[in-house]
Design a protein that fits this description.
Blueprint (H helix, E strand, L loop, with lengths): L5 E5 L3 H12 L3 E6 L2 H10 L3 E4 L5 H6 L7 E4 L4 H14 L4 E5 L14 E3 L6 H9 L3 E5 L6 E6 L20 E3 L20 E6 L4 H9 L1
Parallel strand pairs: 1-2, 1-4, 2-3, 4-5, 5-6
Antiparallel strand pairs: 7-8, 8-10, 9-10
């Protein structure tokens, strides 16, 4: 999947809202669908993006959220059956989109017969949910470093840093490229950022967007 995705989040509770915030901070366009009117009002006080009040299993509501242009939908309510229903309804309207469903048990891989990915937030936080929504090009590896993100980034073809050695790329202060493209050794000044290869990067949140622009375009 490419950067700057259009993403629909079904469910504006704790997991859904936090996932939406993370995705928006990464530069994605996010629309939240939430059936509870009080939750919609609470989100509207903090959220500048689109929030739709309605049932995400209703095709009219999903279409209102822009399903025809969306790249992914993440159903993150507290009900597994409802989440699966949302994803199945979305695929009927847009067969190529990525689907992610929140489940209520850790051993839920059987559900991947119906959706592209499942998340179990009781063991994995909103960052993991955000990673599953986007796919594998950018992944947060850990959320245990306080205010520091450790991420796995695939360098995009045509990105400003693609094909260049680290010494030739002006990464902002607060950035550390940890591994080479093979993951076999620590990155050095002569490490080349090869398009299609993935690199472990430590980055402070304030400069994350700039780093993503350099590596993803």
């Amino acid at each position: 999947m490419t950067s700057n995705l259009d993403i629909i989040i079904a469910g504006g509770g704790r997991v859904g809202f936090q996932t939406a915030e993370i995705l928006a901070d990464r530069g994605h366009d996010v629309t939240i669908i939430e059936h509870d009117e009080r939750t919609v009002s609470a989100i509207a006080d903090e959220w500048m993006a689109t929030v739709i009040h309605g049932d995400a299993t209703n095709p009219d509501i999903i279409e209102q959220a822009g399903i025809e242009r969306a790249d992914a939908i993440a159903a993150l309510t507290g009900e597994t059956g409802l989440n699966l229903a949302v994803c199945l309804a979305a695929v009927e309207l847009s067969p190529e989109m990525r689907t992610v469903a929140r489940i209520d048990r850790a051993t839920g891989q059987a559900y991947t017969r119906f959706v592209d990915a499942v998340v179990f937030p009781e063991r994995a936080g909103a960052r993991v949910a955000a990673n599953e929504v986007v796919g594998s090009d950018v992944q947060t590896l850990a959320d245990v470093t306080g205010n520091l993100d450790i991420i796995l980034v695939r360098v995009a073809e045509g990105a400003p840093a693609a094909g260049k050695q680290l010494s030739d790329v002006r990464f902002p202060a607060g950035t550390l490229i940890v591994s080479d493209g093979n993951g076999h050794q620590v990155a050095r000044s002569d490490t080349t950022l090869t398009p299609g290869s993935r690199y472990v990067v430590a980055v402070e949140p304030d400069v994350a967007d700039e780093v993503m622009n350099l590596m993803r375009g």
